[in-house]
Design brief:
There is one protein chain. This protein is α+β, with helices and mostly antiparallel strands. The chain has one domain: TATA-Binding Protein (2-Layer Sandwich), CATH 3.30.310.110. It contains 3 helices and 4 strands, in the order H-E-E-E-H-E-H.
Length: 88
């Protein structure tokens, strides 16, 4: 069973900070770094850009976030349906 039954803003912030990233609480529900761009939308984690070596989705899975709550938004919608993650 997941440690995060649904992705809420506080869970999102906690996981991002546990991964060693700084979250600017003043800017709202997104985190922008040189290598990644992640945002919280419709209670899912949308990975807009990910240039990290192992992929931040892997780190999120290891932290207990279910695949159904992670969107690989860097893929076009017609491609996302073929991934093991949420399509939207």
């Amino acid at each position: 069973m997941s440690n995060y039954p649904s992705v809420k803003a506080k869970d999102f912030i906690r996981v991002i900070e546990q991964l060693g990233f700084y979250f600017d609480h003043q800017k709202g529900s997104h985190a922008i770094y040189k290598d990644i761009y992640i945002r919280l939308k419709d209670e899912k984690i949308w990975i807009e850009e990910d240039w990290t070596e192992n992929g931040v989705a892997t780190d999120l899975l290891l932290k207990g976030i279910p695949k159904e709550e992670i969107v690989l938004a860097f893929h076009p919608l017609h491609v996302r349906q073929y991934t093991e993650f949420a399509s939207a």
